[in-house]
Specification:
The protein is an alpha/beta fold. It has one domain: LigB-like (Protocatechuate 4,5-dioxygenase, Chain B). 38% of the residues lie in helices and 20% in strands. It is built from 9 helices and 11 strands. The strands form 2 sheets. The chain has an 8-stranded mixed sheet with strand order 6-3-8-2-9-1-11-10, with helices on both faces. α4 crosses α9. The structure holds ligand LPTKUXOY and fe (ii) ion. The site of the ligand O=C(O)/C=C/c1cccc(O)c1O has 13 residues, from α6. It holds the Pfam family LigB. Belongs to the LigB/MhpB extradiol dioxygenase family.
Length: 312
């Protein structure tokens, strides 16, 4: 058993509302390095902890955790369409193991996943099907959220399961860091928006285009006085990265959900996927981690970070 980890931000605005060429090149370079490392590792299984942004999961039945035995990309923004290559029996074994570990997780035999899952897979492997992958969606965008300690416990259960496999496993966390894109909140939403958040699956092409245009327009003003959304918080991001890299995972149990939303932005909770990924790695033994990259990028509405780790 060998386990490697990569956690990185995603942003659907990459390629649609780019920062200056120097920054784009910097990120391209770090992603090519990460992709080369994945290629060299040649994982026999990828476990990706990812959020959903009201593309696959809605308030008609909003789970905190979901594991999928089959999933298809909704191909939002510029992301790839098509099914993921999920080993069904192994995903079922993992589900049973997680449930036996006292963690309630929903099971989907037909999940729709969005850029939150697929962008990172594509960036690190070049496709959605290059390696067998088990997606685990962690609610990070649709409040209320369960406490961070529950996310850590989920990650640890997954880590114990993969530690028992005789396989090279790559664990991914995708999302964050500090950011607040214009994703609506159900509290106080007008009826039409609430209807979408409750049951907005398979929107019309026009509705999807409108949503994407709104995000791009926000990217153009994000971080300026013209934008009312919570700005990026590099200090918060760097402290969070250090917490994980230095192996102080127990600190996340004290994370205050409201406080994080206020100081770093509502979608910062996508870091729950990083917490789960690091918890999985930690359950397999001591690890070494490094911070590969960090930069706050307003054009992408992203405190953009990349971190790698592996068991010692
Ligand atoms: O769900 C959307 O439409 C947009 C999501 C988004 C926007 C900007 C940065 C991100 O990390 C996102 O997930
Ligand atoms: Fe996101």
């Amino acid at each position: 058993m060998t386990i490697k980890l990569k956690c990185l931000s995603h942003t659907p605005l990459r390629g649609l509302n780019d920062p200056g060429a120097d920054v784009v090149r910097e990120v391209d370079d770090v992603l090519s390095r990460m992709r080369a490392e994945v290629e060299a590792f040649d994982p026999e299984l990828i476990v990706v902890f990812a959020p959903d942004h009201y593309n696959g999961l809605f308030y008609d039945l909003m789970p905190q955790f979901v594991i999928a035995t089959a999933a298809e990309s909704v191909a939002d923004y510029n992301t790839l369409p098509g099914p993921l290559s999920i080993p069904k029996e192994l995903a079922m074994d993992m589900t049973r193991f997680i449930l036996d570990s006292d963690i309630d997780i929903a099971l989907s035999h037909r999940l729709q996943v969005d850029h939150g899952c697929t962008q990172t897979l594509e960036e690190l492997t070049g496709s959605l099907t290059r390696y067998p992958v088990i997606p685990i969606i962690i609610n990070s965008v649709a409040p209320p959220f369960g406490p961070y300690r529950r996310v850590r416990k989920l990650g640890e259960a997954v880590g114990r399961f993969i530690a028992g496999l005789d396989k090279r496993v790559l664990v991914l966390g995708t999302g964050g860091l500090s950011h607040e894109p214009p994703v609506p909140l159900i509290a106080d939403a007008p009826q039409e928006v609430a209807n979408f958040l409750i049951a907005g699956r398979n929107p019309t092409p026009e509705a999807r285009a409108q949503r994407q245009a709104r995000t791009i327009a926000t990217g153009k003003v994000f971080g300026t006085p013209d934008c009312p959304l919570t700005p990026l918080n590099p200090e918060w991001d760097r402290a969070f990265i250090n917490t994980l890299v230095e192996g102080r995972l127990d600190k996340v149990d004290q994370f205050d959900i409201q406080e994080i939303s206020k100081t770093a932005g509502r979608s910062t909770h996508e870091i729950r996927t990083w917490v789960a990924a690091f918890a999985a790695l930690s359950a397999a033994g001591p690890y070494a981690a490094r911070n590969d990259y960090y930069r706050p990028i307003n054009e992408w509405i992203a405190g953009y970070g990349v971190v790698s780790a592996e068991t010692l």
